[in-house]
What does this fold into?
Amino acid sequence: MNLSDTQTVFWQDLGRIGYQEAWDIQEQLLQSNLRVKSEARAAAVPDSPHHLATKHHFLFCEHDPVFTLGKSGDIQNLLLDEAGLAEKGISFFKTNRGGDITFHGPQQIVGYPIFDLEKIYTDIGKYLRNVEEVIIRTIADYGIIGKRSPGETGVWIDPDIKGKERKICAIGVRCSRWVTMHGFALNVNTDLSYFNYIIPCGIENKQVTSIEKELGRQVDMDEVKGRIRKNFEEIFQLRFEALPVA
It folds into this structure.
């Protein structure tokens, strides 16, 4: 059995939470792992990353309506000015994740893995493809065929049929000394009208969709979260253990 088979991910469901508050929690968990790494280096702990006392965490949440812009994103992809944002009750944040602009809001599952990739594999490309695979398998449980679109991170429906391409899950991460933060946003029963106020992910002339839109009915959010956890466990060979929300 591989060492990674026995590793635990401590997961929490934060419920509906403001974007800044969730970002602060992620940052605290990331910095805690970075301190462990710095202390291990100073104490000359054996080279094997499995000796590190870092911890894998995973946060589920829903956000109040918010647009977030990645560090390399173009502000021109936000189609509302400050007054327009205020009128519609939408917050805006510039972030330190990869990717361009996206929307987070109610009935969308946002997942934030804070993983120490040194204890799994040091390959950020593989990490992103595996997160995509988690979502592809999750929506497949509902009979939805998700695919990758070459050169575009995330999960898509019909990416190879011009005019029918539609994105169901956005992915954007930050990685510091192989510790990840930020993550994915899967549209479940999401109000997709908010995406009309941005050029999602900076990609023009492509649609956004949700599980609800594809199926023509709403689905249970907790059920989807359970499927996501199961698929993360299988693909990353990690064991999820629930932590109570403080």
Q: What stands out?
A: The chain is about 30% helix and 30% strand.
